[in-house]
Fold this protein.
Amino acid sequence: MKHFLYSISFVLLMSCTSPQETSTGFVENEVTALVFMKSNGKTADEISKFSDFYTNLVEENEPNALGWAFFARPNNDNVILVERYKDEAAHLTHITNISPDGILENEFGQFLEHFEIINIQIFGNVSDEHKDIINAFNFPTTYNTTIAKYSRN
């Protein structure tokens, strides 16, 4: 009972914070990309090392990338990359960085040496201009608009 009362007190205390503080922890216009890939003939160790390298590279160069994670599918060479961006502009920054003359152009070339992109799925509300830029890469891409969501920073 004592633990229960402490828990209730904590919840009440936390609920008394100002709404402004609470709302700043949410990312209203987040854009998420799921990139379905398979290894381009690389070993699991090569994929792991490169994935770690590339994740750190994005973290260092793209402050509005909220998250970046590679996931391996057990018992095969498939990899899923989850990219989270603050908004459409942050995603476009990434696209600019990996494009010709971008600061990550060479590393994106290495990325394509390690992975064959099978499909990209974009989640979030993005403009037609945004779609045109992504579609210029000629990767199979689908767009999924937001119905309802929340995302914490």
Notes: The beta strands are 31-39, 65-72, 78-85, 115-123, 141-144.
